[in-house]
Amino acid sequence: MLEVPPQADTDTIKKSFRRLAHQFHPDKNADNAFAHTHFSLIKEAYEVLTDAVKRKEYDKELWLLQQNTIRYTQAITPELILDRVHHVADAIVYRKSHHVIENHLTDYLCSLLNDHNIAVFQQKAGEQQYTQCCADVLALCTVLPEHQCRMVTDRLAALCAQQETQLERIQAYLDSRKHTDRYQKNIVWIILAIAILLCIAMYWYSRKV
To answer: Do 64 and 101 form a contact (C-beta atoms < 8 A)?
Structure first.
């Protein structure tokens, strides 16, 4: 892979590519399977990083992947959990500054709402913290497909097991989501039916005229 910092410019990327390509080129490593594989990866990375559109998408995906692989170096607290959730929600939902990789986002939220963190949150969190956590997680669920949304809301419901108000809020969201998803699935047929009715009406009108 290209050994360059995230902010590297095109010249830096090209220099790194030339150096590594020279080192791992198949012509210089005829019997080295590792070198052949590494050269392919270097070439692929170069093609992505020198294409402005591909690089932008890569940077966005890398950002969320890093969020998903964060190692907690601080003691888990409700404040830390809320900070993690709100940071992602603020970027993706409220400021819309990052591309969403649904699997990564789902994994990140389910990992964050694991049994240990839930136990810590339930022991130390106040009502306002439950409200904020619920709001941010449900906001993130809006960008997830139905089955992944359900995975996350199941973890959120476990977190809010003793919070009747928040459980009602989660259920209300799921009911609304189900109605919206059903409408979106049927909207094509509704539009098609309306178009057919309009065509029939126009046909009968033209015959009368």
So the answer is: yes
Beta-carbon contacts of residue 68 (< 8 Å; ≥ 6 apart): 104, 105, 107, 108, 111
Tokens linked to 114: 């694991």
Q: Could you give the 3-state DSSP secondary structure of residue 202?
A: helix
| Chain centre distance of CA 145 | 10
3-state secondary structure of 115: helix
Judge whether 34 and 74 are in contact, CB under 8 Å: no
Overall pTM > 0.70 = no
Nearest Cα residue to 63 out of 36, 100, 114: 100
Q: How far apart are the first and last CA of the chain?
A: 72
Q: Which one-letter amino acid corresponds to residue 113?
A: L
How remote is the C-alpha of 71 from its chain's centroid?
Answer: 19
| pLDDT per residue of the chain (209 residues) written in tens, 0 to 9 | 555 566 677 888 888 888 888 888 888 888 777 677 778 778 877 887 788 877 776 666 655 655 555 444 456 899 999 998 988 888 888 777 666 678 888 988 998 999 989 999 999 999 999 999 999 999 999 989 888 999 999 999 999 999 999 999 999 999 998 877 665 666 667 777 788 888 887 878 777 66
Best CA proximity match to 170, nearest among 194, 205, 141, 192: 141
d(C-alpha 94, C-alpha 81), whole Å: 18
| Cα–Cα distance for residue pair 98/57, rounded to 1 Å | 9
